[in-house]
Design goal:
By secondary structure, this protein is mostly beta strands. The chain has 7 domains: 215 residues, Sandwich (Jelly Rolls); 168 residues, Jelly Rolls, CATH 2.60.120; 79 residues, Immunoglobulins (Immunoglobulin-like), CATH 2.60.40.10; 83 residues, Sandwich (Immunoglobulin-like); 194 residues, Jelly Rolls (Sandwich), CATH 2.60.120.200; 192 residues, Jelly Rolls (Sandwich); 99 residues, Type 1 dockerin domain, CATH 1.10.1330. The strands form 13 sheets. Strands 3, 5, 7, 10 and 12 form a 5-stranded antiparallel beta sheet that branches. A 5-stranded antiparallel beta sheet has the order 4-6-11-8-9, with no helix packed on it. It is globular and about 125 Å long. The termini are far apart.
Length: 1144
Amino acid sequence: MRAYIAKCFCGLCSMALVLSLLTAPLRADVFFEDDFEMYFDDVDLEDEGWRVVEVANPIEISTFWTVLNPGGRANPPGEDGAPSAGNFLISDSDQGDASSDETGSGMSHDIWSPEIDLFDAKESVWLHFDCAAILNNNGKCVFDVDVSINGGETWQNVFRRVAPARIEAEPFASTENSDGYFGRIHLDITDIASGQAEVIIRWRHFEPHWDWWIAIDNVLIDDVAGPQGGEVFLLGLQDFAAGIPAEWEIMSLAEVPNEGTETWHTTDKGSRSVIENGGVFPYQDGHGVHRLEPPFAILDSDADPDPIEDEYLMTPVIDCSEAEEVYLHYKDEIWATDGAVQEVLFSIDGGASFEPVPLFSYNLGAGFDPGEDPFYAERVISVPAASFESKVVFAWHYQSGGNQYWWAIDDVHVTGTGEGLDSLNCANRNFRTEGFDPNAASVTMHWNVLDGDTRHELLANGDVIAGDLAADVETYTDESPPAGGAVTYSIRSYAGDELRTECEASPVEPRRCPADLSCCYDIATGEVTLSWLNGVNVEGRSWRIRRNGIPRTSVALDGDTYTDRITRPGVYEYTLELNGGNAAQCPGLPLSCSVVATGEGIAFYDDFECYADDANLTGAGWELILSGGAPEDGSQFSVENPGGRSNTPTENGQPSQGKFLISDNDFGGADFSPGSGGSFDIVSPGFSCADMAEVWLHLDASIVLNNNGTCVVDIDVSSDGGDNWANVFRRVGAARGGADPLPQVELSEDEPGGPREGNSDGFYGRLHLDISETAANEDNVKFRIRHFEPSWDWWVSIDNVQVDSVPSSGGEHLLLEADFNGGIPDDWDIESVDNLAPWSGVDSFPISLLNHNGGLFPDEADGRRLHYFDREFANVSCGNDPELGLDCINRAGNETLMTPPLDLSERTAVYLHVRSSILMTSATAEILLSLDGGETFEEEPVFSYSTEAGFLRADGNAEVAHGDYILPVAAAAEQPDVVFAFHFDNPNQSAGWWAIDDVTISADGGPVVGPPPAVEICDNGEDDDDDGLADCDDPDCEADAGCQVVKGPVFNRGDPDDNGSVQLTDGIFILNFLFIGGAAPACFDSADADNNGSVQLTDGIYLLNFLFLGGAAPVEPGTSASPCGPDPAEPEDALGCESYSSCG
């Protein structure tokens, strides 16, 4: 038996040990303990009876269990998450060999405890140990704890965790066994080990595949159970089935407080639950919520958008004044990071403040690898400091700069023990609902039966729905919940006729509103099929369907489909709305979708809504082509969205709806090198453009190339059914080299090698491509999209594809033009919250590759510089990040650039043209519209990069997108005081930038607007603005520096020989004049080097001191290195300057 040694670090014992000493029984029987402090090396370990066992000859020969910590890992966590101290045991696969045995080989790295005599342990045997098990999100290993009672001949498993990507061999990852572990483990081994004399404990690192590590410390076997909790509920079980209860508090202390799904919520906005995948592993690359059953409370920092977070989920105030012991219970699953605070706190003043030492924390220094497999635990924490307190609050606190991972909790409750506690209360009754089940249109309730109950009565909004339930009944389903509003269920429990408790559950909204409206147009029949997820238990008369705003039909409330027929070409918008009833029941209505019927200038349209899967897609004539040896690995184009990406951005940056087409190489993982020829292609069905003199291809697109990627995205058009192709659009990865096509920056005609179009960076929004050259008047047209030679290079997605004869060119009148050559125009407004990094017309840092090195790839800023525009443009930046190669003093904050006001009252259509490039991060980047001269802005942006549409916006892993946009702005037409604003808000101080150029406002209708008046150039000798006056004679040049009129003669000081340079000859010139009859200076003021009002010996000496001994320079107007100027008024002198000809 090992001696018990309290392990301390820097004089402070771990909180876990302190708590265990405070709460442990005074007379526990300790049967075995080891903290590994007495072992100098593994030889010492084995000398004390521990056995390192390598099973089935592992290839990973250096992953065996050891106390030497070869990977230098931090200690494993104890009860409160704080690290243990000193030596510990570890099996470290990550520091081992990269080569590993195949899954299913049976190899294992095992450590056996010494043999333990538990013959006298007749009643209770518990195994306790600190543990960090990091199994790898895409790993294959298994962590087992087994017990043998016959010296290791046979084993019984008492604990198991399986890496979430293990699907090739048993044990398979499941919702019962997956995830790593972080904390202290307590295992009841009484049934196996009590009364046995030859007990051995085995820890197994089974079939790791370069899969991080398992570490244990402070092993203890005794007769004391791990924390079990108290006898009385102080806070009833909260499983979040009906959302976060109203009596709980969500508090955001972020500078911009978060709300909805940006703080703690239960709707799982990131679809983290593996249940979303039918319970099938792996899911979300092993980063899903695998163990908690939805709904649960979650803080999802990783799902877009990515605001700064300082979020608290707080229980109601709990009265623990009669409790001698208090226990907090909760289930805990987390994708942990060292980039966020993740801690459990408690308060004894009702939540006004929290105790400084957390009950549990992932950030106290214990070892884990951020971003790997989630940790799962069912924790019971003893909280002695809460005993006898009347205002106890527990809180789960998450704080980060945004874009970290997630933390989810469930089944929270608080228990206690104490003679003064009364179990006859609502906490112990624990009356709760599961929320509304839309499939059964019902609400199920649960409660605890307490001693002495004889019957129960259930009510909904005060009306009895079940009046005489037997004493032992503890669940009931309301199959007809009231419709139209919130429902509060309550229970009355009786002993005979005496009312014992009356308890309410949190209010329930017992309905589901309709969602996911889609329109499928059958070209052959002209039929349009509308389908939607039906509403359930919504109060009203019917659903009303409108087409282009005109009522078309009504559908019964239990209906979920409608078929219409289109007989003429055109665009048809359908809406679904509630007819009768309270509209507030479903605030998301009306739903809308649209279809385009081809013909009369529309040659082709597809929004992919009719395809349930890829078989349907190809059945409709689309061709999925794997070129150049491309594998079928999930990177191919698909309507099944295997990577779970958000929808494609539309014209204004908002996401499209329903199905879309995507080639997701980040999901599939194909790795092609430039020149290999591998490509994932999609070819459209053929269509006719006969009798179309002008042909345009329009499509919503999200092209994410990878900032350091090498892939190419092409859009090609064929007029012969696919035998030959003409390229109409190309984007090239910024890191591509070694094979054409190569990335190139845009060059204006003024640059060497220009003009030249740029071709790098991704794209975000709606593309409009003129394909007339290839497709006009052709009757066998196809287009092809190529994801060429990707190397794990993110994705390409498209939606709402249309081919027609409608150009994207804007309006007939140009009302405003700005190319920012010479800076931001004076009549534009710049607003900045702190003025540290406002919008600027100067590329100071620079962000432009052209300004940085002349436009030469590779872009050493990891592909994240600006690759378009000429050398002058408007920008807000910048990275200030060494990894980007950008060096800024300050980062942009909340910055706005506004056009001058425009009177558009006579314009029938308005268009905003802008060329825009952006390093897209969590910062908000949007174009806003004001109809009151910039005083306020419309809620809906004209365009936004910061929506739920799919792109990569991760701070620290941002991508560049470039687009040339012509945006229709219907709301600006016929308005007299219009302002457009480019708004960039960066509360996270993310490393990013936004640059714009060539901003134009065009319009239809109203009077013809002539070109803007020419601007006089003040130094070219020409009358540029045709006003009869040139250069400095033109009043327009009054402020030009070259046209300033200086009173009195001008000169440079210290140049009396008037040769344009201050040198030795000037000193000699002065001395010759003074002493040997040399020529007099034509400009005596220039000879007066010290400006004392006379020319004398000191002036010659003054110049010689300046030139050769480091003396002071001649005083104003300075030497020839400075501009000429007049003699200063002070001190006044009468020397004068008759002539000086060297001012240039």
